[in-house]
Every structure is written in C-alpha cells, then in structure tokens.
C-alpha cells in the first residue's frame, strides 16, 4: 500500500493542466466521490488496530498532498490560459505603452481650422460622392465649359452624373443652398482627381476651401484674411504675393504665393528656382454663383479661397514626396510624435 501511495503521488506530480477542464478532470480522478484518494482512505479498515494511527497520518498526508496539487493546477488555469501570477516580479518596471500620434495631414488641417475659427469661420462638411450640379453646375461650369478639362474626374454614373468630388466647393454650394447671408465657412475634406501618382501629385488629396458672403465684402478683406493666415501658419517673416489667375467661380481671381521656406527664397527644386511657392487660389465670388442660389449680387458680395493641405504640410515640415502621406510607413509617421 505504501508503494501504491508513492506511485499515486508521482502521477499527481507529473499531471499537467493548461485548461480548467483538465484541472477538473484531476479533481474527479483523485478527489471525487469515486476517486483514488477515497479508495485509498477506505483501506484503513484492513490495517491492524495497532497500526491504524500511524497509517491514518500517512493517509491524511496523502489526501492533503492531492488537495494541494489540485489547488496549484486550478490556479494555473485562468480563462483557459496558463497563469503567470507566480512568475511576475512586481518590483520590475512595467512594459512601456507605445504612444501614437496624429497623422501630419491631420495636424496641419487642425491648425488651419483653428486659425480660421479665430476669424469667425464655421466648419462645414459634405458628401464625397456628389452630383454634377453641386460639383460643377452651381459653380458656373456648364457641361461644355472648358474649365471642366482642368479637373480630371472620377465618374460613378453618367446619366444622371454622379462623381467623386473634385473640390470642396460642392460644400460651399450646399451651404449657400441652405443658408442666407451672412455666410462665413471653411470646408475641409478629401477630394479626388484622375491624376498620375508622383512625388508632386496624387489621385486623392485634401482641401480646405473658405467662403465669406456679406454686404460690402471686398478684395481687400480677402487679402487681409489670407495675410493673417500665412503669418499665423508660417511666421511673420514669410513674404506673400498675389498673381492674377482664372477660376470660373470667382472674378477677379488670384493665386497666392509665399516665399519658399525650403531655400529661403534663393531658389530650389521645390520652388522651381523661382523663390516662390503657390499655396492657394482665391477670388471674389462670381455673381452668377450667387444668382444660382438666389443671393442678390447687387446687395451681397463675397470671397472664396482654396488650398491643398498636402502642400501646406509639405512646406511646414519639409516633406519632398506626397506619396509618403498615404504609404503608412511608421518610420515616417513616428517623426511627428512630438508635433501633436
């Protein structure tokens, strides 16, 4: 019997349980009502009376051994996984938590929105899948207008025409459709154009457009608004210039350049050795655009502008390839951890 008890102890010691079910199987086999421990305890009746006291102690130790082994197996299984409670040294430093960051485009977008909010501009958003009227027609671009060739469009449906918006001017259209002047909004969002992907262009990018309509709004108001934006975003030492341009939804129209932040205006590949970098287009809202939304152009005037967030981000953080924004390379993204 003593040899049998030793054998049972060796079996229990070798028993491993990685699940709660395995630990329960151990309990049933050794400690259950028909288990081995109870069967061994029942052998006390066959022991001579003068040896029962000593043998009883051995049986009690055997039972305690089985119960202790069961407790160890039970604690080693938590939710079906081996427990590491006994292997943790709580005096050691904890595992550091990796801290993420916002995407550089999100950082710059938030900065632009914050600057214009201080000037009283509200934020307006709209759908990325647009109809032809809000994207083109309302912006003074009829079907045969040559300006449509300026924007290679991803069409989803032809008749009626549904497309991926080519600019966030469609959001301006929806605001003018639903709201009466005074109107002062900026429209951030993603836009799509069928362009060859390169270091300087992509088939999708992000825009922020602005619209201000009220009585007696002038081109001087437009210039001062954009001067303030540039100084807040890039610093007061940055130079600004306006160049006449053409946009079907504004008249007169102008493109705004700033002195190149990469070379300081001396000339480089980014500014094409001119010392200037274009960052946005702007102009006074065309009277026909106002009329499309029953806004009296004799009473109200307004200005609009639009910029690419990628271009502003490129200048602010000296990024030389637009493809880096969408490649999800953590080596690139980790550089902006301290910029949040």
UniProtKB/TrEMBL annotation:
GO cellular component, one term: cytoplasm
Superkingdom, taxonomy of origin: Bacteria
Ligand binding (Mg(2+)): 251
Free-text cofactor note: Binds 2 magnesium ions per tetramer.
An MF annotation (GO) of this entry: phenylalanine-tRNA ligase activity
GO biological process: phenylalanyl-tRNA aminoacylation
Annotated EC: 6.1.1.20
Catalytic activity: tRNA(Phe) + L-phenylalanine + ATP = L-phenylalanyl-tRNA(Phe) + AMP + diphosphate + H(+)
Principal location class: cytoplasm
Protein family membership: Belongs to the class-II aminoacyl-tRNA synthetase family. Phe-tRNA synthetase alpha subunit type 1 subfamily.
Subunit organization: Tetramer of two alpha and two beta subunits.
Protein's recorded name: Phenylalanine--tRNA ligase alpha subunit
């Amino acid at each position: 019997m003593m040899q049998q008890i030793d054998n049972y102890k060796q079996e229990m010691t070798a028993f491993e349980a990685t699940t709660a079910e395995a630990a329960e199987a151990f309990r049933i086999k050794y400690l259950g009502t028909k288990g081995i421990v109870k069967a061994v305890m029942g052998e006390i009746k066959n022991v001579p009376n003068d040896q029962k006291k000593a043998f009883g102690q051995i049986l009690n130790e055997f039972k305690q051994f089985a119960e202790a082994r069961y407790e160890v197996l039970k604690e080693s299984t938590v939710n079906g996984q081996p427990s590491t409670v006994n292997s943790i040294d709580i005096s050691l430093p904890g595992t550091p938590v990796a801290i993420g960051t916002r995407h550089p485009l999100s950082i710059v977008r938030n900065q632009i929105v914050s600057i214009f909010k201080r000037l009283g501009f509200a934020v307006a958003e709209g759908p990325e899948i647009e109809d032809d009227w809000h994207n083109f027609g309302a912006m003074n671009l009829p079907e045969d207008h040559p300006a449509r060739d300026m924007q290679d469009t991803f069409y989803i449906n032809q008749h009626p025409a549904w497309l991926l918006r080519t600019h966030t001017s469609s959001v301006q259209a929806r605001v003018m459709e639903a709201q009466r002047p005074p109107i002062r909004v900026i429209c951030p969002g993603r836009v799509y154009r069928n362009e060859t992907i390169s270091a300087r262009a992509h088939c999708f990018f992000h825009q922020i457009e602005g619209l201000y309509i009220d009585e007696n709004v002038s081109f001087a108001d437009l210039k001062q608004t954009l001067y303030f934006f540039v100084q807040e975003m890039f610093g007061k030492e940055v130079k600004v210039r306006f160049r006449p341009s053409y946009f079907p939804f504004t008249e007169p129209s102008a493109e705004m350049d700033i002195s190149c932040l990469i070379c300081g205006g001396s000339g480089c590949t980014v500014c094409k050795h001119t010392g200037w970098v274009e960052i946005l287009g702007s102009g006074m809202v065309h009277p026909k655009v106002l009329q499309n939304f029953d806004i009296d152009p004799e009473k109200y005037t307004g200005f609009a502008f639009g910029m690419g967030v990628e271009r502003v981000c490129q200048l602010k953080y000296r990024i030389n390839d637009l493809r880096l924004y969408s490649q999800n390379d953590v080596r690139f993204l980790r550089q902006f951890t301290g910029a949040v």
